[in-house]
Design a protein that fits this description.
The chain is α+β, with helices and mostly antiparallel strands. It folds into 2 domains: about 70 residues, Winged helix-like DNA-binding domain superfamily/Winged helix DNA-binding domain (Arc Repressor Mutant, subunit A), CATH 1.10.10; about 180 residues, START domain (Alpha-D-Glucose-1,6-Bisphosphate, Chain A, domain 4). About 35% of the residues lie in helices and about 25% in strands. The strands form 2 sheets. Strands 3-9-8-7-6-5-4 form a 7-stranded antiparallel beta sheet. A two-stranded antiparallel ribbon has the order 1-2. Helix 1 packs antiparallel against helix 4 and helix 5 crosses helix 10. The radius of gyration is 18 Å and the shape is globular. It starts with a helix and ends in a 13-residue tail after the last helix.
Length: about 250
């Protein structure tokens, strides 16, 4: 967490995060243009943000695109802020303060665990409820099979889709159809990709939510930082968070 605080201490780096919040998926050239410093200087700032996990990058042909990753900030919130604030304080800083102009949203977190244990947590019916709104995941996990997310407090599934690619314990690609209300249903089908990469005694988990319509409702993708923070806490400590990502649906 020290790297996160060091990265946020500089006003230029905070401004870069603000600009990615306003428009995700920018190139170095796009991000460097307003600053009086050289592109190399901006590149160094971006590297510090990437080292802290606050920015993740993806290649598109010869271009390197930069995406805001709010998960580390959510982890800070869950560790300290939620202990001292009233329950409604988290709600005031949730979805709207996540990412507002989607198309592709990338979330990344490091978890001290093995790929097999992390895969099991994502796909196990009971464990999933520990960190995702009390919801159970139902599937046989074969490629091309159906899955649904259900909750004891809801008559119908919360979300559903198809398991497009199933490569345990490293990669899971799913279509995603939100069903929790009429606004969510109107968003149609998007795609969620889970990627698990072992790094030393930990794993880097990257969740990419794409195929979102332009101007999609932030509720469709805004819960990922809370969910991944809850997943990390559950695996590393065996405890559940009491922040919105771990509270029961309904």
């Amino acid at each position: 967490m020290d790297a996160v605080f060091r990265a946020l201490a500089d006003p230029t780096r905070r401004d870069l995060l603000d600009r990615l919040y306003e428009e995700d998926g920018q190139t170095l050239q796009d991000l460097a243009s307003p600053y009086p410093m050289s592109r190399i200087g901006v590149m160094k700032h971006l590297q510090l943000l990437e080292d802290a996990g606050l920015v993740v990058t993806r290649r598109r042909g010869r271009e390197k695109l930069h995406f805001l990753n709010p998960v580390p900030i959510r982890v800070v919130h869950d560790r300290w802020v939620s202990k001292f604030a009233e329950p409604w304080a988290a709600a005031l800083s949730d979805i709207k303060q996540q990412l507002e102009k989607p198309v592709v949203k990338v979330f990344e977190i490091y978890i001290r665990t093995t790929p097999d244990r992390l895969w099991d947590a994502i796909t196990d019916r009971t464990t999933r409820a520990r960190f995702q709104f009390g919801c159970h995941i139902e599937s046989d996990w074969a490629a091309g099979s159906h899955y649904s997310l259900t909750n004891p407090n809801a008559d119908d599934p919360i979300s559903q889709g198809e398991n497009i690619v199933v490569e345990p314990p490293h990669r899971l690609v799913q279509s995603f159809e939100a069903l929790w209300d009429d606004n969510a249903k109107a968003e149609g089908t998007s795609r969620v990709t889970w990627e698990i990469e072992p790094i030393g005694d930990s794993c880097r988990l990257t969740v990419t939510h794409d195929h979102l319509r332009d101007g999609a409702d932030p509720a469709i993708y805004g819960g990922w930082p809370m969910i991944l923070s809850g997943l990390k806490t559950w695996i590393e400590t065996g405890e559940e968070l009491t922040t919105p990502g771990s509270l029961a649906y309904g």
